[in-house]
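Annual report, structural modelling task.

Input specification for the magnesium ion complex:
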Amino acid sequence: MKITSLDALQIFDSRGNPTVEVIATLEDGTTGHGLVPSGASTGHHEALELRDCDKSRFRGKSVFKAVSHVKGEIASTTLGRDVFDQAGLDAALIALDGTLGKSRLGANAILGTSMAVAQAAANAKRIPLFESLGAGQGTLLPLPEIQIFGGGKHAQGRIDIQDFMIMALTAQSYEETLEVTANVFHAAADVMRERGLLAGVADEGGYWPMFDRNEDVFDALMASIERAGYTPGHEVGISLDIAATDLFHDGYYTLGLEQRRFTTEQFAALMIEWVEKYPIVSIEDPMAEDDWAGWQIVREAIGQRCQLIGDDLFTTNLERIERGIAASAANAVLIKLNQIGTVTETIAAIHRTQAAGWLPVVSARSGETEDAFISHLAVATNAGQLKVGSFSRSERMAKWNEVLRIQRLLGSRARFIGAGIFASAGIQLP
Ligand code: 2PG
Ligand code: MG
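The model returned the following structure:
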C-alpha cells in the first residue's frame, strides 16, 4: 500500500508551545497522524528539535521550518513508498537528513513523519497500533510510574528534584495500579491542603512542590501513601527522577534549595543514603548525563535492589545504550521517541535493552499532546513499564486511559506482571 500524500501543521503541546503534527495519507484514502512531544529537561545527546528561533513569533518556538521540511524534502522521499516498510522509510529519512542528530531537517519533522506512517500502516490493516507495531506479539500491560509531586525544570526550579513518583508494587492488575494511584494522588491533595501547601500542579500534573527542603517531599509522600491506606514500601514504592544533569555545573552537583554543593562521590553517596532511608524502588538519572564514573558508583552500591534508569545518560540512543551496557552503568533505559527521532530506532533501543536483561521504561515528555502512541508502544514491545507524568491533565490521562482500552482489545491475551518485572532484571526489592 503506497503513501500518496504527506502534510504537516503547527499544533500546540500541553505547555501551549508549538509542535509538529504530520498526516500521512495512503492510496486507499487511509490516514495516520503523528503528534510530536517536547521535553524541558532535555539531554545534550538528544536529536535536535528544530525551532525557528524567530523571537517575533511564539517567543522563538515556532516550528514552521520543520513543517515545511515535511511538506518539501521529506514528502519527496516518502511519497510512493510502501507504508508497511517502516524500517526502510526511517532509514531513508535518516539518510536524507544526513546528520548524526537529525539537525538538518529536525527530529520533530522526521519523528512526526515516522509516527504518522506507523499509525497509517495500522489503520490500513484495520488493527490497533500496538498489534501493528508489535506484530501481534505485544500482550504485556505496563506497570505505571506516576508522579505525585513535580519539581525541577517542570516547576520553575521550585525544588531541585524533578519527579517524586509512586509505583503500585502489589497490584494484581493494571486497573488496580490506577486505583492505588488515584487514591494516593487525591490523598496527597488532602495532605498538602492541611499543611497549607496546596498550590496547583506542575507541568506533568503532579502537585506544585511548596517545600523548603528536598527531603521534606519524602515526608509528604509517605504521609500521602499512608493517608490512602497503604504501607510505603509494601503496597506502594517511591520512584524518583533526579534529572541530575540539570543539577550538575562546573564539576559539582548543587541542591539550590538547601544551598548544598556535592562532588560526584558525595552526590552518589546521597542517592545511596536516600535508598537506604526511604522505600525507593527506582531512580532515574541519579547522576549527570556524562558522569559515567558516578553512575558506576551508584550501580555498584544499589543496582541489585533498585531500578536505575538512564534518561539523559542514554537519550534512547543505541550507541550510548551499548556503552552503558558494556560499563554496567545502569539497569534500565528510559525510552522517548523524540530523543532519537524515528519509530524504528526507538524499537531497536527497546530490544537492545531487553536483550541485555535490562528494563525499558517507555516515557512521555513534559510537553505532551493528546496522542497516545506511547501506550501502544509500551504494550507492543512488552516493555513492562510506562511513565507519563501524573494522574491529572488530559494529555497524561489519555495515555493511562488508552492502556485500559488496549487491555479490552487484548481480552484474554492481556498479561500483567506488575512489579514482577524487576526480578526479570535481577533486581530484588528489599
Ligand atoms: C524526564 C521527562 C519526563 P522532559 O526527564 O524524564 O518526565 O522530562 O520531557 O522535560 O525531559
Ligand atoms: Mg528524566
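The mean pLDDT is 98.
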